[in-house]
Amino acid sequence: MPKAKANRGGLKMISCPRCGKRFFSETNVLQHMNQPTGTCRFASWHEECSRSFSQARCLPSDNSVPCSSINRPPHFPSADSNAYQDWDLNPPSPEVHETEDFTMDAPEEVIPLVPGKFVEVYEGSSEVFPGGKSFMDTFHEDQYSGERRSNLYFPFASQQEWQFASWLLRSRLSLTAIDSLLALDIGIPLSFRTGKQLRARAEVLPSGPAWLCEEMEPESPTKHPVRLFYRQPLECLQSLLSHPLLAPHISFVPRKVWTSAARVCRIYDEWLSGDRAWEIQDALPRGATVLGVVLSSDKTNISVMTGNRVAHPVLISLANIDASIRSKMSLHGYLLLALLPIPKFVHKTTRIRGLLQDRLIHQALNRVLTPLKTAATVGIMMSDPAGNLRYCYTPLASWIADTPEECLIAATSPKASPITTATSHPPCTSSITLSAIQRACAEQDPFDYKNFIKVIRALRLNGVVEPVWKGWPLSEPSDFITPEPLHHFHRFSWDHDTRWCILATGAAEFDYRFSLLQTLVGYRAFEDGVSKLKQVTGCDHRAVQHYIVGVIAGSVPRRFLTAIRSLMDFRYLAQAPMFTDDSLTELASALQDFYDNKDAIMAAGARKDSWEIPKLELLQSIVPSIRLSGAVMQWSADPTEHAHVQEIKVPARAGNNRDYYNQIARHLDRAEKCLRFDIATYMESKRGEEDLRVDEIEGNETEQDKEHEPDEEEFPTDHLAATRSPINYFTIADALVRGCIPNAPRPYRTFSTATTAFHLSTKPSLRLSVDEAAAVFNLPDLRAAISEYLHRLESGMPHRVSGVRSQQDHQLPFDRLQIWCKVRIQQMRYHSRQTPDTPQTLRAFHPSTVNPHGLYDAAIVNADPDSDWPQRGLEGHSVVQLRMIFRPLHSELLAAYVQRFDVVAQQGNTNNRNAGTGMIGDVLPITLIRSPAHLIPHFGKEAHSRLTSQTSYELSSDFWLNKYWSKEFYYALSSSSR
């Protein structure tokens, strides 16, 4: 069996020349470099960065150039946000002794670490020290580690038994159901026969942060005892730091990222790239490490339909974890920290009961979070993912919550902004709020609830006397209460924008226009309109935003439309994963456009009250927050809302509907033990296999060789995380070209260009002759268009949708066509060109009984050989309607018949128009399609009463190009228009 890892306290002194990983000896480094599955598989990339780094050091700062010559628009820089590398991993000098400070200083100049970006890291931050513990060190220190030398899966008899037991422990089966299952003859020898025996064995598995329960004494009597369930926050942070699945995605060093070495234009994405992390590091001792604490709290329903059972969970995470990883709930980037009590006070006055509940929440939070306050004041030694120690401080980076919860945390009244004062938008700092609380307490006794409420109402407070953030160094409410897109953007749009548009357009007309829209595959359709929707979710809020601007166009005054469009532009721009100084200027300009035109909303009678809307006030803080804390999408409540399902609702509904908090804590404790044991046993078994391979190769090991053990992150632990990534057609197309799938039908059904990948089904939808296809798809000039296409193909002429027919003879070398009614199209994400976006289906269905006029989607096609999508937007591209996708029988050609929409008034010979539809049509190679598009008919002042969803697009002549249907499409068009 695999041997236990010895606990060594020495610092790793030798670094791999390829990836920078530290080891104890040169032999260890060589073994690491020779591992085919190790992190050195990225060696070529690191070597390229090293060469660029060396070149940059030789250039004067004013002549420094980025590593890539790709022309990127300044507003939306395109690069992988996870590509930054921490320079605190540089090895110390070989002469350094363990008694000295092991400072990993960064170079002073700006370093181009990734193409198109220059990174300045904070010099002298995040020193490392020997003596820490890694995830596997903790596993080997368990009291039953001796038993696991002979049986890795102790207290279970074998791997097979553990896998079965793990499934039972994570299932929602009751003890009675488990007993019934174990009573069956399932063909597996088991060492336990009942559910209680199974759970007893689970109790001895290595555990994570333990759950605690504490009685609380509220200020006023309650109907039931008040109990607080929580875990130690520092233990939760250490669990996140040591998690093998998160280890490659944790950074410790603040950085400033620039678009060029001239340091003119900053880039903001992760929290560590913002000004606040840099300022916090300035306030800490040299060598200290900043751990940005992320908290989230919100009430959530437990019971279904009836019961009125509510939980108030508090989640914890680290801002040092990459935002894209932290948001994946399958990777457990958020841990449940506490279950706040929800007592029922016996006081008769509703307002006083609310005040008492707010105070009790802050009392409970103070009890739970005191260790973090202490660590933020004096620091604490914690182990990093590599098993070394760092001296850490724990400022509060963000508190993710909806608007009422933000007001509760900030100790302000529900109708006041939690982060700004009432006038001119200055930040509402802790000193301002504490001064107001002190003044209220001086005027009235806080325990004289009735009179105290009168005082705090005038001061815009909620009555909390000891807020949780009081005494938390480097943590200002105006800084850590970050914008939250789910509520500040999407819920605000539904509550206000949609309501204004309904009042201005009329509910019946508004619903009718929405019912006429044809949406793309996978997008919500509103067949009955939106004004009467009930139980609307965040997905519905987003779906309405996709179409609302185009729907109301023509039916509202121009300045009203400008106000709504400006708010929509602001929301879409604010959801970008990264920003530059230039894009922040555009963001602020979009919000200013709304303020310049908002009076048109009142003039239209859509709003009669004042503009005192807390969510609207919070929009003023978006740009400052991005500069301080990075992109706002990393603070969205979407991941935490999903976490409530797995952390609260599933455990609660797996019990007997009694004592919910206790059962949730027990269920999560078992689940976390199973997850940690799964990871540890997998890594230990792989380490044992690696040791056997090394023994076979080298024969006799030296004592120095025995010290080497591959780092945990070298093991492919991805199988333990149930992440679901979109299919990558680019990879499949590349594999087909390289011959990796020898039996694939020709022409390949999956293929790609530099910007777009395509996928067709193996079998076509139809097989028709050319004339039959022309009749079925209502394309009278199909034969002439194909003839013109073949002529251009043979002569090497560029393909354009012009309607020109230079060939008089329309004889074709074939007569039969294979026809597809849909094609899947995939692009790379705008801000991360190495990450494929979710594929989108484009349809070209011929007329039928279900769709009398057919169903044809719009697309963007390349009309200029020198055009560049998406950097140049529509420049050099055309908007077309996809009418037919086909392949001549026994041919390698895959083509599409498209009809062009004119962006400007068309000139020339109108005889080239298609007699069937009145639009210019041509045949193009399918590879000229660059992106799906969405159109909204121009309904005018009032939509024609005879239109339906099936006829609205065929009977309309004017359309709006809807850039809001997709954020990726929006960024492509918006960047080219600025």
Key terms:
seven-stranded mixed sheet, 35% helix, seven-stranded antiparallel sheet, alpha+beta, 978 residues
Summarize the structure.
This protein has 978 residues and is α+β, with helices and mostly antiparallel strands. The protein is 35% helix and 15% strand.
Task: Please tell me about this protein's structure.
- With 978 residues, the protein is an alpha+beta fold.
- Helix 15 (485-505) packs across helix 16.
Secondary structure: elements and pairs:
Blueprint: E1 14-15, E2 22-23, H1 26-33, H2 43-58, E3 111-114, E4 117-121, H3 135-140, H4 159-170, H5 175-182, H6 195-202, E5 211-216, E6 226-231, H7 233-242, E7 255-258, E8 266-268, H8 275-283, E9 289-290, E10 293-297, E11 300-301, E12 310-318, H9 323-326, E13 335-340, H10 350-378, E14 380-383, E15 389-393, E16 396-400, H11 403-410, H12 430-443, H13 449-459, H14 477-480, H15 485-505, H16 507-515, H17 538-552, H18 558-574, E17 579-580, H19 581-597, H20 599-603, H21 614-618, H22 622-629, H23 638-653, H24 660-698, H25 703-706, H26 729-737, E18 750-752, E19 756-759, E20 766-769, H27 770-776, H28 782-795, E21 816-820, E22 822-827, E23 840-845, E24 855-856, E25 858-862, E26 877-888, E27 895-901, E28 921-925, E29 929-933, E30 935-937, E31 959-961, H29 967-976
Parallel strand pairs: 9-15, 10-16
Antiparallel strand pairs: 1-2, 3-4, 4-7, 5-6, 6-13, 7-8, 8-17, 10-12, 11-12, 12-13, 14-15, 18-19, 19-22, 20-21, 21-26, 22-23, 23-24, 25-26, 25-29, 26-27, 27-28, 30-31
